[in-house]
Every structure is written in structure tokens, then in C-alpha cells.
Amino acid sequence: MKLAINLLLSFAMLALCLWLVWPNAADRVQLETALRSLEWASFAPYLGIYVGLMVISQLCRSLRWNYLLAPLGISIPAGPMLAISSVGFMAIIALPARLGELVRPGLLRRRGISASAALGTVAVERIIDGLMISLFVFGAFFAIRGPEAPPWMMPTAYAALGGFVAALVFLVFAMRRPDATVRFCLRLSLLPRLAPRIARVIEGKLHDMIRGFAVLRDGARLAKFCAWTLVYWTANGFAVWVLAEAFHLELSLVGAFAVMGLVGVGISLPNSPGMVGQFQWFTLLGLSLYLGPAVLERTSLWASVAQALGAPVTHGSLYGTALAYSIVQHVLQVGWYVVMGALALATPWVSFQDLRHVRDATPTPPPPVAP
Hints:
The protein is an all-alpha fold. Helix content is 71%, strand content 0%. The chain has one domain (15-353).
């Protein structure tokens, strides 16, 4: 049932976001013009810098996981860690409803750790990521607050920051009071009354998952993880800015970090398959704060409403360029993670057979493969 609900939310998000960004005939002309105006000779240097920043991002995002696994007695060499992480990141892109988040923990069974404990480390990772990008968003939005700011801006910043802070507080409480936390979660689910046998199984898995929060007790490793995380998101922010420069968008560096953060917060919601539409809409929303409302004066949604009211439909001069920018950035991001995942599957550390066994119930001993 939960899977069905998640899938329903995922495809509902796809439909909504496509409706928000789908261009009408006039918009498609602008989009085509913006894409045709890109010249390889001038675009290639920006693309090279962008790819270099993606390399830094991939390394930091992958290798930092060892700091979360170390308190559980797990240490994975750089090569296997990069391969496992790359396949996991590809799965997050490819699968709807964030089902791809289960792939990395599942792949660690071959390394002698339960998927539940590994999933606990992923929960810590996701919440610290969310907290960091929320801080980027809050700082950038706070700097441009004022009477002309859209009414959704600061409530969004407060809600995102408050949500991830609350999640982090919950993790700390769960780590310090695991029994009370597990009992609370089970009572909330009503499983002890409806399905006592299933409740006992889930109780064990929840306790195992809370083991993955152990890094919160290890200040040194947590600090190192946060430092790698800061480098990871900084590289991402610069990548957003560099690509905006390639499209001649007058986006400041602070604005680039705000756009990156808003997209990060947006895709933490139930994600559409491949984040299609969702990525573009939140990118345009972020750009509108720094480039003006013309970025949003064009989608078929607003055009249809204006036409229904008998108002003239205007097309912002930045719309085509902004939409082209969001599409190219999304294609580059998806392409990068798919290529990295495919290369990882060609290594001796991860295989398609490992993916088939991701949902196995028990850990298996590590294979006799040299790191």
C-alpha cells in the first residue's frame, strides 16, 4: 500500500510539474531560439568547467559516506565506495518515489552490514544535506527579503529549514532513546494491533536502522562528513553559476546557490520519475527571484488562464533562455549520473547480479575481490 501511495504521489508530481512548465507554441519558438543560439566554441569552456565541478561533486558525495559507516565498523576502499555510490545515485534518478535510496544500503550487504543499519546512515546523510541546502536558501532569501519579494519566499525558507532541523532533532532523540522512539513509531502505525507479527519484524529493523545514526555521537567523524558535504554543495553551486554564465543569464553567485538550494528542497518532495518537470519548475522559480518575474510569464498554464480571462498573453524575453538553461542543466545532471552508474556496473565491485539481490534479507560476507 505504501509503495502504491508513493508511486501515485510521484506520478502526480510529474503531471503537475509538466503542466506548470509545458511550453505553448510561442514558448517553443523561444526555447528553440535559445538552444540554437548556443555556439559550441563559446559553450565548450563552460561545459569543461561544469564537468570538472561535477567530478569534485561526485567524489565528495560518494567518499564522505565512509565517515557515516565507520562507527558501525565498516570501512570501504575508495574504488568500491565510488562504484556502489554511483550505482545508487543512478538508481535515485531512474526510479520514482525515491525508491533508488534503497539501492546503496542494499548493495552494502555484500560488505557484511545489514541494509537497515546502512539505511540509517543514508537518513543522516539526507537530513544533513537538506539542512545545508536549507541554510543556503534561508541565507539567500533573507538577504533579498522586502515588500517586493513574492509572498511564498520566506515561508518556504522557514518551512524547509524548520523541517530539516526537526528531522535532525528526531534523529538525535532516536539515537539517545531508541526504545521509546521505536515504540512511538509502531504505535503511530497501529501495526501492533493490526498485525502483531509484522510489528515485531519491523521493530527489529527500526532498532537496526537507529544503529546507523551512531555518527551523531562521533564529533570528529561528523565534522569531517560535514566538511566534505560543504565542498560537495559548494561545487554544485558553482556549477549552477557557471552554466548560467554560459547562457548569459545575469545570475549572481549568491543567486546560483539559492537556485541550487531551492531545487534541492523541491526534489526532496516525492520526486517525479527522472525529476522531469520538477527540476525545471523549481529552477525557473529560483531564477525568477533574481532575474525578475519575466522568467515565469510564459508557461502554458498562465497563458491559458490569461486567455480564458480575455487578457493579452505576454512572453517574457528571458523565458526561452531560462527554460533552455533548466533543461540543459537537467540533461547534464541526469546524463552524468547515468554514465557514472553505467561505468560503475562495468567494474568488478558492482554488478547487475548485485542489483537483483538488493532486497535480500540478510547480509552476506564480502566477496574475495581485491579493492
